[in-house]
Amino acid sequence: MTVFCDLDGTLLDVSEKFHRIYSHLLRENGHKPMGKDDYWRLRRGGLKTCDILSWTGAESLLARYESGFLERVEHPEWLAFDTIFDGVPGLLRRVRNAGRVVLVTLRRDPHALAWQLSHTGLAEHLDLVLSGHDPQREAWQVKVGLVREALPDCDFSASWFIGDMATDIRAGKALGCRTAAVLTGMGVEDSLRLLEPDFILAGINDVATTVGL
Ligand SMILES: [Mg+2]
């Protein structure tokens, strides 16, 4: 059995980093940011960035905000705010007793990714790390391509694909895996439900009981 697992919002809690970058960019441009709970309530409610900015009258910042966010979101100075969810090392150890864990992520900076996997201790719990970035293709197609290229002989029908975004569920279904969506990241529950994953879980630790590991 192979468990394909997303990183951001699935194994890593990125909520602090996202809110800090948001707050930094708003303050830098003379606006008052909203608190972390409000910010995530709106994001997980499905609001787009422009709507979140307009909530505090900062909608004119959109272009500057988006480029500023991209510049920072994979920089180690900000990656340092990401933490692994409680219980993840133990969970990955259990999964690896029954199979292998393959990380599938769409980071642009492979060096920053390697630094973070080492810094968080996740690296020692992963059998394989697949990462790529291709703005010409849809994100789920990039994930499918990474997996097919690395593991052409994988038995996908005996595998799982787990992640927090529609991208992960689409990729898992396209590969023929069973799928589980987690609600700890950036995905919106109603949108994830429309894709009909096999399971919708509160968090990655529920995989243990659901999948029976
Ligand atoms: Mg994710």
Description:
The longest helix has 14 residues. It is globular and about 55 Å long. It has 213 residues and is of the alpha/beta class. The mean pLDDT is 95. The strands form 2 sheets. A 6-stranded parallel β-sheet has the order 5-4-1-6-7-8. It folds into 2 domains: 141 residues, HAD superfamily/HAD-like (Rossmann fold); 65 residues. Strand 6, helix 9 and strand 7 form a beta-alpha-beta unit. Helices cover 48% and strands 14% of the residues. Helix 1 crosses helix 4 and helix 8 crosses helix 9. The structure holds magnesium ion (MG). The site of magnesium ion has 8 residues, from loops.
Describe, in short, the structure shown.
Helices cover 48% and strands 14% of the residues. The protein is of the alpha/beta class and 213 residues long. The protein has a six-stranded parallel sheet with strand order 5-4-1-6-7-8.
